[in-house]
Amino acid sequence: MGSGWNKAHRERDREQRVQDQEGGGGRPRPLTYLFSKLELTRLPFFLTLPPPPFAELFFCNVLKEVEGFEISLTRDSGASRVLEQFLRVGPAACIEALLGPLCRAPPTVLCHCCVARVLETGLQQLPRLLRSETDLHQNLVELVVDLVNNVTPVLSEFACDIYGSFVLRTLLQLLSRFCVRTAVVGGIGICDGVPSTSLIFLSSFFHLHSFFFIHSVFVEEEAASHVLQTALLVLHARNASLSKFDLHAVPLTFAINCCFDSALLERFKDRTSSHVIEHLIEVADDEQLKILYKHHMRGNVPALALHPTANYTVQRFIGKCSERQLFKELVPWLEAVLAQGHMGIVTSLAEAVVRLQKRQDQLLETLLKVCFPYGTYHDVTYHGSVLVQNLLRFQDPALIVNGLLSLKPSLLLSLSCSQFGSRVVDVFFRSPTVSSQFHEEFLTILKVLFSMACTKHGSRVIDGIWTSVSLPQKQAMAQELALKHSELRQNQFGKHVERNCGLGHFLRRRGEWQEVQAQHSRKRRMLADILD
Question: Which residues form a coiled coil (predicted)?
Answer without folding.
Answer: none
